[in-house]
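Duplicate of #3305? Posting structure anyway:
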């Protein structure tokens, strides 16, 4: 099995770990991981690394992500999404587009966000969602995140069929930094408007350079399992730096080489014959090797 990435279009109802298990079987190796989880109810882009490409995942996880989602105003749930019990209801029938836009503006840019309690964040070594299930009372600290774009694409009355009158569904698109919880955006928008809010649908459309146009369903992968070669994957995700044979040899031995102008953050290094060698970053005019692939 070659080293590389698999861009999966995750179906609803399956955990990210469940996708990894399927990939291990298809790839014939246990050395498989993912770059950032998706909740079971969510669908869309899940980046899977196979063999050496698993060493790219921690760096890919830090890149920008894009989502399409539906936010329901008028109900609060324990999980901030449709899978949790409703804890409060308030009619959103009188909410204006102007108020919605003002609320979204407060949640756009560099903000401090309190993650959803039903998340994998650890509190004193215990997952937050475990503490919720055990009925524990606790608070999570706010974290800095960046919401580059938060746009309403449509507003639709949800109707009485969903259990209460006065519900509004907002179809939105979000571009954000790693670590941003779309469920928390729904929760906080609803709180600001005085109606409560939660997420009813979530689809991740992009992780860094990898979008749905490159993603394949599990059914497609079952029929034909192929990986995006590790060099191609690195070139798509990071700035590229080509070095000569001598520089390649030094890097292969872990030697720092002069790298004037190389900035912070991962850069993909390629040697002769287009061979992917390493991820490096610049530090005081020299390379600092983040991961060696040579």
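Output from current build:
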């Amino acid at each position: 099995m070659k080293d590389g990435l698999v861009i999966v279009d995750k179906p609803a109802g399956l955990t990210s770990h469940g996708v990894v298990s399927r990939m291990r079987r298809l790839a014939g190796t246990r050395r498989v991981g993912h770059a950032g989880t998706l909740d079971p109810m969510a669908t869309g882009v899940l980046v899977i690394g196979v063999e050496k490409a698993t060493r790219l995942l921690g760096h890919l996880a830090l890149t920008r992500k894009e989502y399409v989602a539906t936010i329901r105003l008028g109900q609060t749930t324990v999980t901030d999404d449709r899978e949790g019990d409703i804890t409060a209801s308030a009619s959103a029938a009188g909410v204006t587009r102007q108020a919605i836009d003002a609320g979204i503006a407060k949640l756009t840019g560099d903000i401090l966000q309190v993650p959803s309690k039903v998340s994998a964040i650890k509190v004193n070594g215990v997952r937050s969602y475990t503490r919720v299930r055990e009925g524990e009372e606790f608070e999570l600290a706010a974290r800095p995140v960046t919401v580059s774009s938060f746009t309403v694409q449509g507003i639709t009355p949800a109707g009485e069929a969903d259990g209460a009158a006065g519900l509004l569904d907002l179809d939105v698109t979000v571009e954000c930094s790693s670590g941003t919880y779309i469920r928390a955006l729904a929760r906080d928008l609803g709180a600001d408007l005085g109606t409560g809010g939660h997420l009813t649908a979530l689809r991740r459309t992009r992780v860094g350079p990898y979008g749905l146009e490159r993603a394949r369903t599990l059914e497609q992968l079952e029929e034909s399992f192929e990986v995006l070669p590790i060099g191609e994957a690195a070139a798509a995700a990071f700035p590229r730096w080509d070095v000569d044979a001598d520089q390649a040899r030094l890097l292969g031995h872990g030697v720092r080489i002069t790298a004037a102008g190389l900035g912070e953050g991962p850069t993909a290094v390629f040697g002769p014959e287009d061979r992917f060698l390493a991820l490096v970053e610049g530090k005081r005019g020299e390379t600092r090797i983040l991961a060696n692939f040579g």
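Confirmed duplicate; merging threads. The chain has eight helices and 18 strands. The chain has three domains: 4-62+209-230, 65-207, 238-292.
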